[in-house]
Design a protein that fits this description.
single chain, 771 residues, alpha+beta, four-stranded antiparallel beta sheet, 12% strand
Length: 771
């Protein structure tokens, strides 16, 4: 069968415009509640990561920007102080975060979400249409990507950075395809630009996943091809360019992760958590089944947005049409990508995971292997678009050859419906075969969900039969199948589309800030509200992000009497700690502040906290975290007059209190100007988290011109001071960040030079072609 030439939208702006308008219409239709109430109704759950984590991050960044501090490197309000810019979730350099500078916060979140859903659809549309598919096929691909389970459910969970990062994946594969096809440098520039956006979007795990799969994709496509080395070199240059442009982010991130929990190797069990259970492959057609089942496998809970692959019956019918057709390169490569991605997504459910954990770099530092499912869905969507393209190019009599197997599929689904309706024990048998434990009282709910899912698939299957039988015109058939797929996706989105009232967040914030204003002081609180206390002007001893200093993590694990490996489950959990430890006095934890939904409960802890700034003459050198923490936890330890160090401060310990004077002025969250006058040496102890990134710079009027920053009481900063006047700057400025800054500036200059040379040449070439 001869294929008709189809213009790609890259060369046909009208086609691109119509597709964009169609996506915009669908977006408004699906998200009409947000469109009508953009300031009060915000996408995602109230208990999701958006209010607990991303709102406080954006609030802090905006607050610092308005104060003239455009690139805050340190956040003193969470975890007793933690790297901020080095935490990729801050995404300070991501261009689309400019929305938060110009729009009210609630409107900015909604606009950010909707814009990325739209961009994701357009990205997938461009990639599909670049393969010369029928316009309706390409448009269907974009719609499937926008609303598939692997993408859309990040809205439900409030995953701001996840959604932003995966938006650009189709464009990456588009650029790679064009590099392999044309070897033109313009596509290398596009790949570099899109990869840069993906890195800056703020979730490096998806960058790692897409890069790993993209590497396999390129190697498969270049296998035994002429000029493969040159093409491979261009691909490497695209990635190198993106890494160069984002070196400032990587430098800060690597420096921080070196000392933070995020950079530490995870235990095998923890790295294997949130893998994709094999039975969840059924969610590609039956989206609600395992959510309603409340599945627990092998004692590990699974989160449904991490295990849902919903695409719909229409999409899988179209995929099957490709599989039953003649072999083709796109089918072979796509199936290989789907198989590789799903194998990696299964994670600890396969024996391969142990080998990957031991030998594949990065796997032992990440959890949530199920995220690989997104790439599998991406290539399934591409195959669905190819399937629709094949169907539309067939003659009516050829299309009708698909009716018998579709009828058989429909009859099979009808039989399943009857089976579930009249044989409820079948559900129990299925659960026992797959090793699942159902929560008590969920049998009827699970049975109902399964029945409705099968019924919907059954109706869709017979709907496809009617369309193929009755619609002779390709555009009518294509439009009908797009509508059928759209109805499936609309039903799925409306089931999982969740909003919360932004005003309720403000009410809670006002209650917290009101109490903090009535009880001023430089203290921290223990809370169950995640990082929201920070947005209200307070400081929290814990947080909702795993990017916390490793020393502080060990300190908190010890305070709860917990093993470090088991305590990893507490990371990212906003629940309050069950044990109120005496160690909390070292981190100035004064109150337990609990949100009880209808009111704010505040309890003050007994005892005196360590001041934020203190001069100490008495010290003791102790080696090893366990020994230090055990000594600090001893109720008899005089923490207000004695500190524990790991290296000699350079002066003898004295039981007499220091009579010196010290003044600390916060220039910003990253800088402290310190002035001190001492008659005898002492150790300046600052009640903030210690990391190696804190450095000192002495002013000319300082008696001492070099200073050391050492750990004090394991987690705090200690600065040995000699006799005399001291005047110096303490700043958080990791060397890797400085190196990354210069690399980014150099890379940006090179990028602009190449762009300025390429763009005029491209414009002259197009003008010559028109003439």
């Amino acid at each position: 069968m001869q294929r008709k030439a189809v213009k790609a939208p890259l060369s046909d702006p009208k086609q691109w415009l119509w597709a964009s308008l169609a996506y915009l219409f669908v977006l408004i239709f699906v998200f009409h509640q947000v469109v009508l109430h953009p300031l009060t109704q915000v996408l995602s759950l109230f208990s999701s990561d958006l209010p607990r984590l991303f709102y406080p991050i954006r609030h802090f960044a905006l607050e610092q920007f308005q104060a003239g501090h455009y690139l805050p490197l340190w956040d003193p309000h969470t975890y007793g102080g933690a790297p901020f810019f080095g935490n990729f979730s801050s995404a300070l350099l991501y261009p689309l975060n400019l929305l938060f500078l110009f729009l009210p916060m609630s409107l900015a979140f909604n606009a950010f979400f909707l814009l990325h859903v739209l961009l994701a659809g357009l990205s997938m549309y461009l990639w599909a249409s670049s393969r010369r598919l029928h316009p309706l096929s390409a448009w269907l691909a974009g719609m499937l990507y926008m609303f598939c389970g692997a993408f859309f459910l990040h809205l439900y969970a409030g995953h701001l950075t996840h959604l932003a990062t995966i938006t650009w994946i189709p464009l990456i594969f588009l650029a790679l395809d064009k590099i392999m096809e044309t070897r033109k440098w313009g596509w290398v520039l596009l790949a570099t630009t899109v990869l840069t956006l993906q890195i800056l979007a703020g979730f490096p795990q998806y960058f790692y996943i897409s890069t790993l799969i993209a590497g396999v994709y390129v190697l498969l496509n270049l296998w035994k091809k002429s000029g493969a080395l040159q093409t491979l070199g261009q691909v490497v240059m695209a990635y190198a360019g993106a890494l160069g442009l984002t070196a400032i982010q990587w430098g800060a991130g690597l420096a921080a992760s070196h000392e933070c929990l995020r950079g530490q190797e995870l235990s095998y069990d923890f790295a294997g958590s949130y893998s994709l259970p094999p039975e969840c492959l059924l969610t590609s057609v039956f989206p609600d089944l395992f959510e309603k089942f409340q599945v627990f496998r092998y004692g590990r809970s699974e989160i449904f947005w991490d295990t849902n692959l919903f695409l719909g019956t229409t999409a899988l019918i179209l995929v099957f049409m490709v599989l039953k057709g003649a072999p083709s390169p796109v089918r072979r490569v796509s199936l290989a990508m789907i198989g590789a991605s799903l194998l990696l997504a299964l994670g600890s459910y396969t024996p391969l995971f142990h080998l990957l954990y031991e030998f594949l770099p990065g796997i032992s530092h990440l959890r949530g292997s199920s995220k690989f499912k997104l790439v599998a869905c991406l290539f399934l969507i591409l195959l669905a678009a190819v399937g629709l393209d094949l169907l539309l190019r067939q003659k009516p009599e050829e299309r009708q050859k698909n009716i018998p197997w579709l009828m058989r599929t429909g009859l099979f689904l009808s039989t399943l419906c009857l089976l579930v309706s009249f044989w409820p024990d079948a559900l129990q048998k299925l659960a026992s075969l797959t090793g699942m434990n159902l929560a008590e009282g969920t049998w009827a709910q699970a049975q109902g969900a399964l029945f409705l899912d099968i019924l919907a698939a059954n109706v869709t299957c017979f709907g496809a039969v009617l369309l193929i039988w009755l619609a002779k015109d390709p555009w009518r058939l294509g439009s009908g199948l797009c509508l059928l797929a759209g109805l499936e996706l609309f039903s799925f989105t409306q089931t999982h589309l969740t909003y919360f009232d932004w005003r309720s967040l403000g009410t809670q914030e006002k209650a917290v800030s009101g109490y903090l204003n009535e009880n001023p002081g430089d203290y921290r609180v223990m809370t169950n509200m995640g990082n929201r206390v920070e947005a209200a002007g307070g400081s929290n001893i814990w947080g909702c992000d795993p990017f916390l200093p490793s020393r502080y993590y060990r300190f908190m694990a010890f305070s709860q009497g917990s093993d470090e490996k088991r305590f990893q489950e507490k990371v990212g959990n906003s629940q309050a700690f069950p044990v109120v430890s005496g160690l909390f006095h070292l981190i100035r934890c004064k109150y337990a502040m609990m949100d009880l939904k209808d009111r704010l409960s505040v309890t003050q802890f007994a005892g005196k906290d360590l001041p934020r700034v203190l001069l100490m003459s008495q010290w003791e050198k102790v080696a090893g975290p366990e020994e230090i923490l055990s000594k600090l936890a001893d109720p008899r330890f005089p923490y207000l007059s004695k500190t524990i160090v790991e290296e000699d401060p350079g002066f003898p310990s004295s039981p007499l209190p220091s009579k010196g004077k010290v003044q600390v002025k916060d220039r910003s969250t990253d800088e402290m100007e310190i002035t001190a006058d001492l008659d005898e040496p002492a150790l300046l102890v600052l009640g903030e988290n210690y990391t190696e990134g804190w450095k000192t710079r002495a002013f000319t009027d300082s008696h001492q011109q070099s200073y050391r920053v050492i750990p004090a009481d394991y987690i705090l900063r200690g600065i040995p001071l000699g006799t005399g006047r001291h005047h110096f700057l303490l700043e958080y400025r990791p060397p890797a960040y400085v190196v990354g800054l210069w690399l980014s500036l150099i890379s940006l200059a090179l990028y602009l030079v190449v762009l300025c040379r390429w763009l005029p040449h491209q414009l002259r070439h197009k003008a010559w072609v028109r003439r």
